[in-house]
Structures are given as C-alpha cells and as structure tokens.
Automatic annotation (TrEMBL):
Membrane-topology annotation of the record: Multi-pass membrane protein
Family note: Belongs to the EamA transporter family.
GO cellular component, one term: membrane
Cellular location(s): Membrane
Transmembrane segments: 61-79, 91-111, 117-135, 142-160, 166-187, 199-221, 227-245, 257-277, 283-301
A Pfam family annotated for this UniProt entry: EamA
Entry keyword annotation includes Mitochondrion: no
Protein name according to UniProt: Threonine transporter RhtB
Gene source species: Dictyobacter aurantiacus
Amino acid sequence: MQQEPVYNLPSINDEVTHLQPQQAGTFMRKVPPQVFALLAMVSVQSGAAVGKSLFQSIGPLGTTFLRLGFAAMLLLLFWRPDVRHLTRRQIGVVIIFGAATALMNGAFYVAINRIPLGIAVTLEFVGPLGVALLQSRRLKDLLWAALAAAGIVLLAPLGAASNVDLLGVVFALIAGIFWGVYIIFNVQLGRAFTGGRGLALSMLVSAILIAPIGIVSGGPMVFEPHILLIGLAVSALSTIIPFTLELEALRRLPSRVFGIFMSVEPAMAATIGFLFLHEVITVRDLLAMLLIITASIATSLEARSAHQ
C-alpha cells in the first residue's frame, strides 16, 4: 500500500504497512481480499495457540524471545538495512518502537498464560481503540468508549460470576497500552524509513531487549532443536505469514473494511482458543467481548467517516 495507512484499529501485525507490495499473481488476484484478512487473523491466533504450547517448557517470556528473535532474523535477512547513516531521529524511533513491540508481546504472552486467548485479545484491543478515541473529537465516540469500558468491567475478576485471573487481566491491559504506543510509533517509523528497513531494525531491538529475561526464564530448553523449531513456527504464524496476507488484503480492501475485519479478531481468538486449547468462556465473557467488538467496529466506522 503506497499511501500512509489508517491506524484506527490495526491488527497485531501492523508492521505489514511498511512493506512495499509487489505485483500479485493471477491466483492471488482471483482470491477475494476478505479471505486474506480472515486467514491473517487465523494465522495470528494460531501462532498464539502454538506459542502457548511452549509455555510449560520455556515459559511465556522464553516464547516471546523466540518469536521476536526469529522475526528479527528473517526481516534482517530480507531487508538488509544499512545502519551506517542513521540519524538520531531514526535511532530514537527504532528504539521506542522496538521497546514497545517487546513489551507488548511479552505482556500478551504472560496474559494468555493466565487467561483464555479470546479474553486476552479482547482486553488488548483497548490499546488501538483508545488511540482511535483519543484522535477523535466526536461526542458520539463517548458512547463507544462507554461500551468498551462496560466490557472491561464485565471481564474484570469481580464477584463470584467471574472466573478470570486478575493478573492475567492486568497484563492483557498492559499489552493493550503498549499496542497503542506501537500504533503511534508505527506511523513515525513509516515516515522515518523506506520499505521495511526500520521494522527490521526495530525487531532486532525487541529481540535484544527481551533476550536476557527470555533466556533466563526459559533456561537451556530455549536452545533445544525441537523448541527452536516450534519457536520458528510461532514466529512464522504470528508475524511473517500475516505480513504477506495482510499486505495483499490492504492492497485491495478499503481501510474501513479492513478495520472492521480486524475488530472481530477477539472472536477469532476465542474460537481458536476453544478448538485448539480447549478454553471455555462464560456467557458473561461473551457479552463483554461483544461490547468491546461493537465499540471497535463503531469507532473504526466513525473515524473513517470523519476523514471523508
């Protein structure tokens, strides 16, 4: 996508916006772009489910290290960024974006170690939703903020009706906060670099920052061949494959439609969690997710119409 992307409600793989698309083949053009958006969501949440399978062996932070480490390696090999002539501004943006990426992913993996995947993704959406609401000047958006707040309250571990772990909720919200920072500096990164060079450098920063705690918490098992292989699969499912799929979707989908698709990602996460992790969520949790998804879709629509 050549123009600057819309950041109302981006997916967890916004780094796709820095890639410059190539001419799609005949087969790619025949596939509806909605299919690519859907497959990207499936890939991201499947990657989270596979990553969760590593937690017993190397913990959530060890898994985060493998995901970011492999992503950095692959992106550096592809983009081969030249670091000899970086400006102070470029270095600053790379460090902040890389730190936000590391904190976002680390907090999210800690969260899904304690709460169901669908609930964690729903709570994490508070980040992009908050960014969209802060950028809005419409009174109507207060309604969507209230809906999202009601959903968060329902998901909060208050009373006997809730079975959600408090610490898991806190880490999911922290992940959401850093997702918001990630979105803001994603724009800055796109302006400071061409192509995906800034993204590759930022991923390197993320991997370096998470490496000490990831290696210590994961222990020697982090470097076991079968663990590395699964970690590579997590990185591919969570980052590289969605890059390609979202890129193709963004080439042919209006940003408003893409935002709406991404807004239903919590429902996709809940489905993946149920099918592959046997995670069951309550009616109360489903209602909370519905409120937050509704707020996300409405905010995406309102923000888009405000710029028309």
